[in-house]
Amino acid sequence: MNFLMLAALFALPGCAGVLDLDGALAVTPYRIEENGRIVIEARVNGEGPFNFALDTGASISAVFEQLNDKLELERIPGKVVIVHGVVSSGKFPILDVDRLEVGREVWPNPRIVLLPGATDAGKSVDGVLGIDFLQRFAVGFSTRDRVVRLYPPELVARRSYRGWASVPLEFERVGERGAALYFMAIEIDGHKIPALFDLGAGLNMINWVGARSLGIEPRDVRRKEQVSGALEDERQVAGFVAAEVTTANIRWRNESFSIADLAILETLMLDGIPVVILGAGLFTQRDFVIDFARRRLLVNVEMKEAGANEPGIMN
After folding, report:
1. Cα 231 to Cα 224: distance, rounded to the nearest angstrom
2. CB atoms within 10 A of CB 153
3. Which of 69, 79, 104, 183 is the most exposed place for a label (fewest CB within 10 A)?
4. Per-residue pLDDT reduced to its tens digit, 238-263
5. What are phi and psi of 73, to 5 degrees?
6. Does any domain span residue 159?
7. pTM of the model
């Protein structure tokens, strides 16, 4: 039995001219959900398109039950994986899928897990594209063109990104097939804390060890909110607003964080140290490229800081 991580939860063919000029293997429009997740279209076994969330906090790609009800994909006998979510874990079947397509890119014989659809994470999307799919490429996100581009990894490695911040990514191996979760070093109000880079998360989170390292105690927190993941129902958590979040030479101001001790951190044996989960909303304000081959996140910061909740360049 394999063990896999799903940290949080979440194509239109690209213009041939853009593909030729830019060198991308696939170009697909995206939409941003209200909670910040990036959603693109994909086809499964030639059917669709369907809505899939990009999720760097998931080691395995997945479809939710409502999509499987339409496609009637068969479960592979005896193939079950343990999927670890933000709050809980569970055993789920692997589906027999012939191919998954994003734009002109075809992923043959993908390993796709079936997840329950009766959760907040599965209400607005049909599935999740996890690290097992994304790390096959360098993934570009463009706010100007409103598209996601999938590049050959070697193409991005050769390019110069002058004026872009380069954030080192450290990886944690998950399962038996080379998938990994990616972490970066950040500072919250001057305190250094490791952070999981999780585009599938709709919000930023920090554990109570991390919150206490910032001087925050349960008695000090008045704001409460609900949080849920891909496997579980809602849970009430505390929250606070960080005056400043920084990494590399990027700065964000007045960012909201939820505070909770999450099961996924215990699974990764990180529950005893300060840890943050950074959601998609922190990154979709600027162009970025995830360069998995070089383990770096490139962020375009060649813009003046416009105010609260927008990243800027640190002098």
Report:
1. 21
2. 15
3. 69
4. 889 999 999 998 999 999 999 988 77
5. -70, 140
6. no
7. 0.84
